[in-house]
Amino acid sequence: MSWANVRLIFHRELRDQLRDRRTLFTVLVLPILLYPLLGMTFLQISQFLREHPTRIWVVGYDAERLAVDIPLFDGERLSNDLEDDSTRRLLEFRFDPSVPDELTPFLAELTAEPAPDSAGQPEREPSTELQQLLASQQVDLLVLFPDAESAAEGDATSDDGLATNEPPSTENQSPIAAEPGTPRVVLAGNLARDSSRVARQRVVRVLERWRDLIVLKTLARNRVSPEATRPFRLEERDLSAVATRRAAVWSKILPFVMLLWALTGAFYPAIDSCAGEKERGTLETMLCGPATRGEIVAGKLMTVVSFSAATSLLNLLSMMFSGALLIGAMPREGSMLTFGPPPLLALVWLTLALFPAAALFGSLALAIAVFARSSKEGQYYLMPLLMVSLPLLMIAMLPATELEWGTALIPLTGLMLLLRELIEGDYLSALTYAAPVLAITFGAVYASARWAVAQFCNESVIFRESEQIGLGVWLRHVMRDRTVLPSAGEALLCAVLILLIRFFGQFALAAPSSWNGFAVTTAVTLLAFVATPALLMALLLTRSPTRSLLLRWPGFTPLIVAPLLAVSLHPLLSAFGRLVVTVYEPGPEMEQLGRMLQGFFDQAPGLLSIVLVIAATPAICEELAFRGFVLAGFSSLRNKWAAIALSSFFFGVAHGLLQQSIVATFTGLVLGYVAFQTRSLLPAMLYHFVHNSLAVLIGHWGSHPEARPAWTEYLLAYAPAADVTTPTEYHVPA
Question: What b/e string do you get for 277-293 counting C-beta neighbours within 10 Å, with b at 16 or more?
């Protein structure tokens, strides 16, 4: 590679991008204006944000009948012991000493006991007329004090469970019997409306204070210390440093903003550098020059990475500066902010991580943008890349997500978690997982850069002609111009269809409760959802279904070597499965699934039937789809390992559990290599069958307690090909 040519192309691309006013606005002007404008808008809008008073309809309150030491109301306002500035300003009361006529028809509904909970019983719908009555009375919440007769019954529950002063019981009575005369307070409102929910929260706080005061008064009258109701006192000590507490929020926001703008800043220069040159007609001139395709990609990639890094860095600087000014201007007294301004040290770590992130997004954007025929079409390709990246970034923002071996091996997620640990000052954890995070990140950069070079070397991609959109035209083209082997697009369509059909089909099948049901469900799933789409597409889209499915005789030698290879690699793959379980620890669902399968296996008529369901059926159906049609279609990419990797990826995604998917992907690499080298599906089927059969036999022979493996390990031993998914409902046989 001539670095002189790369530098020349880089300078040319950089000048072209700097002449584009849209690019300059996105990179330079927008970051400087965006966050100050957002801060100004927030300050302006916050002046209009205030809490509105809620209207409360109090019915049936009588202090003498309640016979409590402390009254709730003093006239038409709360008593002095319960009222404060907040309640005085936010609660507006309307009183009716007795039940009004318009509320009388609903009194039975309001004071009735709730129906006992029972499985399968529909939830009782409240009266719509009562909701309309409250709306017509312009009240947000009804506070009802039942009459003395109802109160004397000691019923401590409300009709809809909206609010009571005693918890409900499944035996239609309070677990602690209420004393005669214990008052009930029934809260009724349309909790689907925000105003009603806010009113309920405010009233409940007042009622809780009222109850606490009554308890204290009762204890004092009986000469009991209030400490008797509090057996212990809870005290908290926050051992985190002040800087760490301030950085806790910014450690999630700043890496997310950095990576998101690195993606956005890379995509638009990549579109202009590729699709824009196609529109201007200058790409052909560059391709005819002395620079190689790799040098052209390197020069364009340096330009895209530069703009991506500049966009992200300017956004970070503007956000941190605006955030520091905005937080500094807010009052400390009564503020809801629990964090301070962004730490300056975070900028150092973010800058170091910015360049590999910009290189990753730049390579991906360049490879995708070269596929577009125009700038307008290229903008549509941003959404798929964004939809793939956002979940990986959002995972790292979840409170329960921590930097460990499992998350460190996930692209983007591991990088964002590493930055979070560095910003929060946990350098020991960051140093422990820095190597795998950086290895995955730079590995992804290398793979995406190689993909971009491959895209530029593919003439059919660079000079892609316009396509006509129409179902009739496409069907005539498919039937008239069928090829011997499927195309890469048809293979991709087949893989996606299998995933979609499996996803929606699993909800149509009932969860099995016996071995026969499990066998039928497994056979239907594999035959109808996996094998059938591949067989139909081979018949309709290709001239030779047998060749498109790799159904040819490979000779005796591959048929002998494939089972031996399965036997020799089975311990290695089983050990890898145990490693996956260690890194990605399964939840209780996996153990429950294992007990369910063992119950089914105990009901099986014999070991042969288990082998047929677990080994033979997946070996035939899954190989027809993933090593047959899908692998044959991806072979048109003219890259053996790319075809094997893509077919293995979809083979892994087709499995239901994360641990299954990871092990299945690596097992698919071996199966794909066997099928590709032999140009036949039969050795791969034999390998698949022997691999699953070994797992079944090991699980059967090791079934006694001393030799039985852990359920998760047992599942993963055959999960790469057994295709066991997590049912929506478990039926564990006795």
Answer: bbeeeebeeebeeebbb
What is the spatial distance between Cα 52 and Cα 194, in angstroms, rounded to a whole number? 12
From CA 243, how far away is CA 424, in angstroms rounded? 8
CA 697 to CA 708: how far, in whole Å?
12
Work out the average pLDDT over 103-128: 65
pLDDT of 88 higher than 90: no
CA distance 41 to 49: 13
∠ CA 385-390-396, nearest 5°, is: 140
Q: How far is it, in rounded angstroms, from Cα 601 to Cα 14?
A: 65
Residue type, 713: E
- CA gap 640, 643 in Å, rounded: 5
In tens, the pLDDT along 203-236 reads 999 888 888 888 888 888 888 887 777 777 777 7
Do residues 424 and 345 touch, judged by C-beta distance below 8 A? no
Report in angstroms the alpha-carbon separations of 257 from 24, 35, 394. 19, 12, 11
pLDDT in tens, 438-493: 999 999 999 888 888 888 887 777 776 555 555 566 666 666 677 888 888 889 99
The H or E element containing residue 189 is: none
> In this model, does residue 323 exceed pLDDT 90?
no
- 209 to 133, 148, 224, 234: CA distances (angstroms): 29, 23, 19, 20
Higher pLDDT, 703 or 579: 579
**pTM reported for the whole predicted model:** 0.72
Query: CB count, 10 Å around CB of 472?
Result: 8
CA angle 84, 330, 337 (to 5 degrees): 70
Q: What is the pLDDT of residue 711?
A: 39
CB 418 within 8 A of CB 401: no
The contacts of residue 560 (CB under 8 Å, 6+ apart) are: none
DSSP 486-499: --HHHHHHHHHHHH
